[in-house]
């Protein structure tokens, strides 16, 4: 099933060109975009189609009140195409006749709605009037304007990528690929785009190994005209390579901490403050875990806990953190309480840090924790800065690793 949308002008003989175009495509239905002055042309088109081509058409007319109003012409054209999309598999537009506003509006609507072809009729022109001489008409069809629409969608993808909307990017790429042949997919580097976005999509979900395996197959020369800063993606690859391959457990923990912190920063930039604070809470807890592990080894079972506690009284205090299977479950507050009792600087600092306790309290009252109150931007940013403050206490080079985790822009 095929439909056409055609702008109808008032010039002498335009009915011949429109008739030739309709006969060429043989649509099941036609929408004529007319003005008060061009209504009569449609009747002439009907007569030519019947008498010359033996063709009768089903059609409707849509009135453009101001043929010089480009916005009105665009809106009516777009609405007409959208209505036809619900009923017809193929839609073509013919912009041969009509005012510049009418034809321009129809072309724009056709591109935006990705019609199957743009048609115009040409031929030998009368030297006096400049109009196509009846009987010399030739129909030209511009195939579906995939180059234009793909460029438009690539710009949308870039904007979404730069706002960390990786899943939506991948859905839009699927749509683009469904409309392109293999030659254009290669020419537009769609697969390269897709792999770069998947790389950061997986990484943003902490699926590091999947991300790294993807990036290993992407050549630097393929991405030079896609990413604004190729050097940053090289830093990213270095970071992930170190994270996945290092045998140094403390280095791996440091890199994981930098990754969680940066992930939280991206959520702040997105305006997802509750998500950011959830990650920052985990970062503070993780910092305490790292200090315990670094100083005293892994604290997993009751025996581990007893071995580092000098006094019987302290041992009894921490029995509540041991579950029925004998596993130690300290949590954030328990971890820092233990560090304080072990006279560790960071534990003492945490105990006295009223600002941090206030921020943690707000996290606990948030929807993603135990309450119903949304987190405000200022609170998320304050907690982010607190996490950096604590991270710098245990790792003096944490900022350099955070730089390597930052995602580039397209």
Any overview of this molecule?
It is a single chain. The protein has 3 domains: 2-144, 3-Layer(aba) Sandwich (Rossmann fold), CATH 3.40.50; 149-226, no CATH class; 233-405, no CATH class. It contains 20 helices and 6 strands. The chain has helices at 14-25, 39-53, 70-85, 100-112, 146-162, 166-178, 182-187, 190-204, 208-215, 220-223, 230-245, 249-270, 273-296, 302-308, 312-317, 331-341, 345-352, 354-364, 377-394, 398-405, and strands at 2-7, 29-34, 59-63, 90-94, 117-122, 138-143. Strands 3-2-1-4-5-6 form a 6-stranded mixed β-sheet, sandwiched between helices. Strand 4 (90-94), helix 4 (100-112) and strand 5 (117-122) form a beta-alpha-beta unit. Helix 11 packs across helix 12 (249-270), helix 11 (230-245) crosses helix 20 (398-405) and helix 12 packs across helix 20. It starts with a strand and ends in a 5-residue tail after the last helix. 33% of the residues are buried.
Structural topology:
Elements: E1 2-7, H1 14-25, E2 29-34, H2 39-53, E3 59-63, H3 70-85, E4 90-94, H4 100-112, E5 117-122, E6 138-143, H5 146-162, H6 166-178, H7 182-187, H8 190-204, H9 208-215, H10 220-223, H11 230-245, H12 249-270, H13 273-296, H14 302-308, H15 312-317, H16 331-341, H17 345-352, H18 354-364, H19 377-394, H20 398-405
Parallel strand pairs: 1-2, 1-4, 2-3, 4-5
Antiparallel strand pairs: 5-6
What are the main properties of this structure?
single chain; 410 residues; alpha/beta; 3 domains; 6-stranded mixed beta sheet; 8% strand; elongated
């Amino acid at each position: 099933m095929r439909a056409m949308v055609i702008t109808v002008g008032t010039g002498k003989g335009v009915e011949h060109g429109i008739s030739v175009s309709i006969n060429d495509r043989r649509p099941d239905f036609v929408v004529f975009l007319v003005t008060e002055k061009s209504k009569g042309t449609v009747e002439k088109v009907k007569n030519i189609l019947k008498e010359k081509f033996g063709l009768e058409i089903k059609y409707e007319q849509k009135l453009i009140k101001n043929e010089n109003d480009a916005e009105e012409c665009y809106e009516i054209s777009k609405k007409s195409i959208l209505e036809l999309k619900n009923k017809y598999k193929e839609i073509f537009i013919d912009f041969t006749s009509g005012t510049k506003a009418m034809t321009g509006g129809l072309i724009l609507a056709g591109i935006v709605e990705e019609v199957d072809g743009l048609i115009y009729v040409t031929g030998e022109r009368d030297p006096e009037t400049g109009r196509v001489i009846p009987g010399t008409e030739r129909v030209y069809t511009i195939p579906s304007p995939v180059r234009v629409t793909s460029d438009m969608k690539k710009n949308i993808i870039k904007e979404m990528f730069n706002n960390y909307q990786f899943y939506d990017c991948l859905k839009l790429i699927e749509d683009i690929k469904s409309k392109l042949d293999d030659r254009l997919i290669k020419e537009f580097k769609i697969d390269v785009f897709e792999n770069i976005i998947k790389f950061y999509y997986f990484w943003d979900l902490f699926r590091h190994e999947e991300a790294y395996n993807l990036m290993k197959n992407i050549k630097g020369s393929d991405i030079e005209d896609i990413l604004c800063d190729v050097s940053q993606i090289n830093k990213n690859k270095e970071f992930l390579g170190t994270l996945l391959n290092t045998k140094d457990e403390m280095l791996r923990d440091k890199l994981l901490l930098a990754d969680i912190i940066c992930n939280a920063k991206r959520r702040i930039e997105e305006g997802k403050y509750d998500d950011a604070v959830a990650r920052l809470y985990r970062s503070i807890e993780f910092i305490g875990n790292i200090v315990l592990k670094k100083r005293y080894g892994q604290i997993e079972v009751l025996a581990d806990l007893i071995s580092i506690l000098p006094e019987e009284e302290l041992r009894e205090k921490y029995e509540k953190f041991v579950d029925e299977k004998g596993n130690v479950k300290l949590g954030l507050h328990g971890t820092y309480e233990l560090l304080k009792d072990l006279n560790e600087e960071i534990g003492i600092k945490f105990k006295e840090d009223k600002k941090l306790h206030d921020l943690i309290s707000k996290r606990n009252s948030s929807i993603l924790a135990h309450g119903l109150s949304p987190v405000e931007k200022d609170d998320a940013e304050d907690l982010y800065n607190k996490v950096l403050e604590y991270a710098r206490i245990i790792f003096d080079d944490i900022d350099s690793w955070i730089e390597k985790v930052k995602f580039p822009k397209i």
